[in-house]
Amino acid sequence: MSDRTPITVAYGDGIGPEIMDATLRIIQAAGAKIDIEVIEVGEKVYLSGNVTGIAPSSWDSLRKTKVFLKAPITTPQGSGYKSLNVATRKMFGLYANVRPCVSYHPFITTKHPVMDLVIVRENEEDLYSGIEYRQTRQVTQALKLISTTGTEKIVRYAFEFAVKNKRKKVTCFVKDNIMKITDGLFHKIFNEIGEEYPEIEKEVWIVDIGAAKLATAPEQFDVLVMENLYGDILSDVTAQMTGSVGLAGSANIGDEFAMFEAIHGSAPRRAGQNSANPSGLLLGAVMMLVHIGQPEIASKVHNAWLKTLEEGVHTYDIRSTLNDSITVGTREFADEVIKRLGQKPSLFKIAEYSSEGHHKVEKSKLKSQANIAKDLVGVDVFVDWNSGSPDDLGNIMSKIQAEGLELSSISSRGVKVFPEGSPNINQVDHWRCRYENPEKGKTITHSAIIELLNKIREHGFDFIKTENLYNFDGVSGFSL
Length: 480
Ligand code: NAD
Description:
Among the domains are: about 1-85 and about 255-350, Isopropylmalate Dehydrogenase, CATH 3.40.718.10; about 375-475, Alpha-Beta Plaits, CATH 3.30.70.1570. Helix content is about 30%, strand content about 20%. It contains 13 helices and 20 strands. α1 (about 15-30) packs across α9 (about 280-290) and α7 packs parallel to α8 (about 230-240). Bound molecules: nicotinamide-adenine-dinucleotide.
C-alpha cells in the first residue's frame, strides 16, 4: 500500500494561486508524502451558475480524499450566492474550527508580545443554523440552538487538543448570566467533561469580560472553547492582534473529513503581484500534515518558517521592529523557507508535533438523556397585535381558556407586561402569552393547546408561533 496520502487542493481566487503554489512547494520540498487532486472552486464556478461555488463533480474528490487544502476564494457581489465554507461545513459535519494565534515578537510588530493561544470554535450550531423569521411588521427573530451532543463534541475536542498538544489550560467563554438555558447547557457540559481532565486547568468567563481580558492580556490564555458566534468574532480579533491577518491558519475538523486554510480572504487587489504572505495557508498546511499523520514533516516546515522570520525575511504586510529585515515577494519567501528546511529557530519555541496532535472524538460518554422525564406543562402563544395597551390584551387573553390552560402572564421582548407589568415599555406588535395549568407543574395535553389556539383564532388574533413548555425531571425547560 502507498504511504502517500491523497489530498484535494483548490487554488482559489485573487492571491490564492500564488500562496497555494508557495505552500505546496515548501511542503513538498520538506518531503510531504501527498498525492494532490486539484479541484476548481470559487468565483469562476459561482459565475458559471453554481450557487455554492463548487461543481458537483468536485464533491466526489472531497468524498474520496476526505482532506481539503483550500486557498481563499472570492465570493461574487450580490445575492443568490451561498458560502462555499458553509456548504463544506454542512456536507462533511465539520464541527470544530481550530485557530492558533501566536505572537512573533520581536520579529513581527504587535502590541501583545506574549501570546500563544488556540481558539476552538463550535462550527455547526448556535445562531448559525440560519433559521430566521420576520414574525410581525416590527419584530424579527433568529433561533439559537445548542445541543448536548454538539457541545460535548466541541468541549471534548478542546480538552483532547489541550492534552495532545501539551497545553495546560482550557478556558470556556459563555453568556449564561443571560442565556441561562442555552449557554447554561454549554457551561454545564464544560464542567462535566472538564472533570475527566484533572491535569488540565479549567476556567469559565462570561464572554464580555472574558473578551476584554483576551484583548488586553492574551498571555493569560491557552486553549479557549466557545460557541460559534463568540468564536467567530474573537478568533478574528486574536488573529489580528498577532500583527497580520496573513499569519494565521485554521483547521475545520469533522469525524471523517477535515479542511485546512488561511483565515484571510483572497485580497483581490494584491492578486498577481507576487507580494502576498503565504504564511497563513502554510500554517494551515502544517495542521493538515499533523492531521494526516506526517508530524515530522509538519515540524520541519514550521521550524524552517520560524527561522525565516527570525532571520528578518518578511513579506510586505509584516512590519518588523528589527533594522535588518528584508521584504521579499511570495515566491522568494517560499524559497527562503525551503533553504532553511532542517534548521530550527533560535529564539522562538521549536515546533514539535506528534502523531497525536489532532484528535478524533469518540462516541458520547455523557449520561444518556433517554430516561429523562419530559412533561408538557404549558404553552407560550406569540401573537401579532397592535390594538391597545398590555392591560387591554391581558383582559381579553385571560378570558380565553382550554382544558388545564389559563393565562399566567404576558411579556413583550422578554419584559413582563401583564399582570402588573412594567409601565415604561417601548411597545411593539409582538406579545408572548403564557398559558399554564393553574396547578403549577401539572401536565396538560396537546389537544388542549389546539383547543386554545382555535379559541384565540376565533377572537380574531394572528398567532405567529407557539412554544411548548416542558419540565425535564421536574425542572423547567423554559425561561421564567
Ligand atoms: P481579505 O482577507 O482578502 O483582505 C483584508 C486585508 O488584508 C487586505 O488589505 C489584504 O490586502 C490583506 N491581506 C489578506 N491576506 C493577505 C496576505 N496573505 N498577505 C498580505 N496581505 C493580506 O478580506 P476582504 O478584502 O474583506 O475579502 C476579499 C475577498 O475574500 C472577498 O470576496 C471575501 O468574500 C473573500 N473571503 C474569502 C475567505 C475564504 O475563502 N476563506 C475568507 C474571507 C474573505
